[in-house]
């Protein structure tokens, strides 16, 4: 039902998430934000079971901020991703596993942009592009076909629009709008919301 | 430094809060085996709440059902929490009543300790965190908190959802209510118009949903606090004219 997508360029990461908060067959909210800001240059996109998403994402968010307060410098995206994965793994075989699927996108001043794919079984992979949700089945091959490591920002947005177009054409569920954000050396930038009519 | 023990300690802090002497000790804590229910619990309802220029309006039906039996035709599904906060309840009536009382107590304690009232957003977060240890058990609470600190509406559910919004409807009759509300609710409604559309939405839901019925409770929350605007006559009697006529009414002449 929910959809997340991330595309890494040479010096930026573009991420998008749908805006629907649903409860069985009803859309309870049309403008729900599924992205959690972990630090000035790291975003965590989180989907999955109701309640688990917010609880887990906020826990990670507060701990990343606590690290900065205690140590005076921020966690890198790779470190934050590994910390997140370790927490997921620790809870996986407990009485209360968190059923969440995540994309962590960030810009490291030393290593550059990074996109990390994590799922509810606490697997972690650094990937040039990634997607979560049923929509991923429809859009991963588009990303396979058109992705290049040297995409410009406009080309990346164009690729994102192609994916959203395909979803509106073939996906059985209605996902009317998507939040889009871009992370680069200057931080996190909110981009124009992608609505199905504008695509 | 960054360990799961932080979460475990936070969790245990909540558990110790809940196991304080004021609660019965037999409360089940997120047990892996759910305790079988002795009889079917009440679940069906239609509740709704929305924001408009005149404040926040909350409405609910008054039927408590147990499978096929109307256990209570005059139950209160909108419970005041304090003078400027009201909560609609849906799910298991007993769970909702208990957790509303716990929430009222915790909000009052917060007010006494910190010298100011917790915001509606904070109250919703508090309720959401208190319900989290019970996720996966039979506990079923779906509430909308309607508060006046500027007019705010939050939906909180025992599965962990917490959403801020301008319009929510919860319960088995909620899809029917949503379709009426989506047609007519807008910011510029007068209080009378808002009350009337809320009553009609609950009425239409009671027409289609077996587990909703009887009367409609309406609460209006403004900067001055909440007021109850219910009509105690059965909603069917007062709004019967909205229904189509019986098919055989023209022909029968008894």
TrEMBL record, chain A:
Pfam families in alphabetical order: Proteasome
BP term (GO), one: proteasomal protein catabolic process
GO CC terms of this entry: cytoplasm; nucleus; proteasome core complex
Keyword Acyltransferase: no
SUPFAM superfamilies: N-terminal nucleophile aminohydrolases (Ntn hydrolases)
Record's subcellular location: Cytoplasm; Nucleus
Family label: Belongs to the peptidase T1B family.
Subunit structure: Component of the proteasome complex. The 26S proteasome consists of a 20S proteasome core and two 19S regulatory subunits. The 20S proteasome core is a barrel-shaped complex made of 28 subunits that are arranged in four stacked rings. The two outer rings are each formed by seven alpha subunits, and the two inner rings are formed by seven beta subunits. The proteolytic activity is exerted by three beta-subunits PSMB5, PSMB6 and PSMB7.
Protein name in the entry: Proteasome subunit beta
Organism encoding this protein: Kryptolebias marmoratus
Automatic annotation (TrEMBL), chain B:
Cytoplasm found in the keyword field: yes
PROSITE patterns linked: PROTEASOME_BETA_1, PROTEASOME_BETA_2
GO molecular function: threonine-type endopeptidase activity
Regions crossing the membrane: none
Reaction equation(s) it catalyzes: Cleavage of peptide bonds with very broad specificity
InterPro entries xrefs: Ntn_hydrolases_N (IPR029055), Pept_T1A_subB (IPR000243), Proteasome_bsu_CS (IPR016050), Proteasome_sua/b (IPR001353), Proteasome_suB-type (IPR023333)
GO terms, biological process: proteolysis involved in protein catabolic process
Swiss-Prot/TrEMBL keywords: Cytoplasm, Hydrolase, Nucleus, Protease, Proteasome, Threonine protease
Pfam families, alphabetized: Proteasome (PF00227)
Cellular compartments annotated: Cytoplasm; Nucleus
Active site feature: 45
Recorded GO CC terms: cytoplasm; nucleus; proteasome core complex
Job of this protein: Component of the proteasome, a multicatalytic proteinase complex which is characterized by its ability to cleave peptides with Arg, Phe, Tyr, Leu, and Glu adjacent to the leaving group at neutral or slightly basic pH. The proteasome has an ATP-dependent proteolytic activity. The proteasome is a multicatalytic proteinase complex which is characterized by its ability to cleave peptides with Arg, Phe, Tyr, Leu, and Glu adjacent to the leaving group at neutral or slightly basic pH. The proteasome has an ATP-dependent proteolytic activity. This subunit is involved in antigen processing to generate class I binding peptides.
Family: Belongs to the peptidase T1B family.
SUBUNIT field: Component of the proteasome complex.
Protein name, as recorded: Proteasome subunit beta
